[in-house]
Amino acid sequence: MKTKLFCGERISCLGMGNMRLPVREDGGIDFDRAAEIIDLLYRGGVNYFDTAYVYHKGESESFLGKCMKKYPRDSFRLATKYPVFDGKAPAEVFEEQLRRLDTDYVDFYLLHAVGDSNADKYLTGGALEYFKEQKRLGRIRRLGFSFHGSLDCLRRFIAANDWDFTQIQLNYMDWTLQNGKEQYEIITEAGIPVVVMEPVRGGRLAKLTEETEAELRAVHPDWSIPSWAFRFLLRLDNVHVVLSGMSTLEQAADNLETFSSGDALSDDDTALLLDVCERYKKQVSVPCTGCRYCVDDCPMSIPIPDMMELYNKFKLNGRSTLRAMDKFEHNAAECIGCGACAALCPQHIDIPSVMSELAEGRRQLDD
What we know:
Layout: E1 3-6, E2 9-12, E3 14-17, H1 31-43, E4 48-50, H2 59-67, E5 77-82, H3 90-101, E6 106-114, H4 119-124, H5 127-136, E7 140-147, H6 151-159, E8 165-169, H7 174-177, H8 180-189, E9 194-197, H9 210-219, H10 225-234, E10 239-244, H11 249-261, H12 267-283, H13 304-317, H14 340-344, H15 351-365
Parallel strand pairs: 3-4, 3-10, 4-5, 5-6, 6-7, 7-8, 8-9, 9-10
Antiparallel strand pairs: 1-2
């Protein structure tokens, strides 16, 4: 297992993220299947296990506490997070977390999902001061934050404290799509180690289109598609831990192989991957220019360009983005498939098919 010196400790470069554990039919964590994954990773040299107060409706921390009890406490590191957006006081949450995890201290503690809308609450509402005191008392070993916000917010938050580490969403798609490169550079310039979340973008980069996958396999036929995403991150010196939310033994075994014997991407491989990524984004999206030629003749008054924009977000970010359909007075679910829009589209988009896929995706969110 590849390791790095992270906050003065030798930590595995692969970390286990406990947000997407296998579940039973009733939605609860399937303890036996999830424990098998943890055990395989632990035996393979993984010693960083990340969770949060809200993961699996609070069950993730309790699961991890029970699962890790069989191992010496000093042989692994626990990371969890405080969510100011949950509305509970820091002390109430932290004491409950220690009970759930069945531990006297947390190795790596984070302020959860910091962004433009909640930064003030973290900095001026007492949370930061409380957790700094817990660190002084030894109940928290390292204090950091996970981030989902603007570059200005990131700079401001970095300046607010002497942080031990931070956690950001980073992958080869978001390197350019969501200011990933700029975030990484700002944090690195500040001298703060990086932990990566969403290295395969919630699974979106685990499977590409048939055409783009073929290009990658032609160069390295023995590499899995997800391993390209991990190898991209292994190039970055200030990335210390890469979290993967593994939900099957197969995923865990593949990741162990990558982080045990796999090399970082070469310059040529990186150039190929970024080029493939640009074409992948085009292949899974629709080339709507927002010209609105289609709108006036729609008998259902659907704002078609807005639906096209939502479709592209759905294909890149997942089905949960489709909840945004509900804010429109008329949306894709009302499409009658008349084809009037498609006949007027300069980009020759099969708009009724896109509407049908959007409507079905939104319906499945409620199933």
